[in-house]
Fold these 2 entries.
Entry 1:
Amino acid sequence: MSKKIGHYLLVTLKGLCMGAADVIPGVSGGTIAFLTGIYGELIESIKSVDLEAIKLLFTGKFRQFWKKINGNFLLSLVLGILISIFSFAKVMQYLLVHHPIPLWSFFFGLILASPIYIIKEIEGKKLIHLLPTIVGIAVGVLICLISPTETTDALWFIFICGAIGICAMILPGISGSFVLLLLGKYAYIIGAVSDLNIPVLLVFAAGAIIGIIMFSKFLSWLLKKAYNGTLFFLSGLMIGSLVKVWPWKKVLESGVDRPVLPGDYAGDPQLLQAIIWFLVGVLLLFGIEFMAKKLKSSKQ
């Protein structure tokens, strides 16, 4: 019994690490799951939350439901993730308000390093893979340039953000925070977590649950059928989205922001701090990936 408790406490600890990653755009919780050796079990557990599981739940077969979804594992992991997210949210909210340029520079480094590493590690690269990469870049840039600085706070949009963001958990190299950033809702959700905005959090969580049920199998199928193409597209998407996290911006009258050079920034560009935190972001991402690679090779 004590061995089982110890095992699930370890899973909770791994969840704490995943939660810390989940609040940082560019660091994938999936990468942390892989690094800590629970990625496979996580994916299988997520896929098990299907219509059959829901039927078991609503017919009162709680024991079968809990066993099917690997409930002890998921509960332990989610507990750790939530503790970490709620702990880090206030820190992120403070940094977004008081130290935006160093923070966005850090994010820029993380997100820039991610596609570089992913593309470098892909086996069987072909010239044709330039196409999904270019499409991904174009989509990323387009979304960033046409989307307003602040998207709607309507609950239906928060629901969609939850549904899309949660799917990032099973996509290699993509973090949920990155998706929220792309949708213009990163700061808003971080604020909701920090301020315990229960209605927003409940709607976001509902979207996440529906997203897992509806999209997890499709995304898993997509990665099996078109693994390289999907990774190249996602890498391009991240490259294109760098427009969104560029530290120096100017907000136009239309509400759309545009990147500007540090010299054209209205306030103090904090260039030295920006460079330092950019490098920290790059090194952190490559450090995490290096550790994951070492761990994988040591198990073979």
Note: The chain has a mean pLDDT of 81.
Entry 2:
Amino acid sequence: LHRTKAIKKISEELELNLENMKRKLSNIRDILFEYRERRIHPGKDDKILADWNGLMIAALAKGGKILGEKTYIETAKNAFNFINVSMRDNESRLLHRYRDGKAEIRAFVDDYSFLIWSALELFEATHNADYLKAALKLNKEFIEYFWDDNIGGFYFTANDSEELIVRHKEIYDGAIPSGNSVAMLNLIRLSYITGEPELERKAQIINRVFSEKVADNPIAFTQLLVSIDFSVGPSYNLVISGDEGSKDTQELLTSINNHYLPNLTVIFRPTDAEIPPIAAYVDCIRNYHKKNEKATAYVCEDKSCRAPTNNPKIMLNSIRAEWDL
């Protein structure tokens, strides 16, 4: 149904009551829709992909954290939980696609890499250790099935997938970043958070394996350069210890979220528990406590921590954020 004038204008020209005119148009639309439904519907791309959703979840979690939009974070949580639970096979392996109530096709490098990224962003947005647990579990599977034990880097397909003439590794960062580029940053962040040196070692191997390609044409590997920048530093690990939901804790967290600090990992240590859930994955976290009965920030660089502070401005200065104050 096409009209070139406003409904009010048409009703005036036809000398019809506006409400009657709206009802007539509604009836006409219903008749047209009924006939249209008899036609063969065009094909629709309604599949759910783990990799693309991983990118969306990471963006929503990060955006929700920075903007204070809880609905973004809730949407990210729901999407992540669906993929991480429903898109699994009988062996609990991650799958690539979901459609018509069925999950199929063993996951590829991007599926794992992007979903780990999303779990890390959710961990920092919610401070819920379950997302760190999920990231570590996914990363363990990722390394087991995709890592090249000979020279390093992640293959595009798993080692038990259909046998190919050549198992290639993708590194080019186009409209979508490559799985290896994102994986390198994931490994560094996980290493910073957990203190596990083997994860950082694997990240450095990725850097070394693809270094010649990057040197020849850096502009084609922008996400990998982001990962390299995080690795080279200066990069920081921040632990905020305080009572969950308290005003002083929120002041520290908000001041971090209000500044662009890309080379930073943030861990929240709730002080209402002697051994918080995060301690299962970050053993040293139990050593971080409040000072002066206030929420306290510990800024660490190169495994060396500065004096703890309760002051958001001092905390930010320690992360060299003076330019953004």
Note: The chain has twelve helices and seven strands.
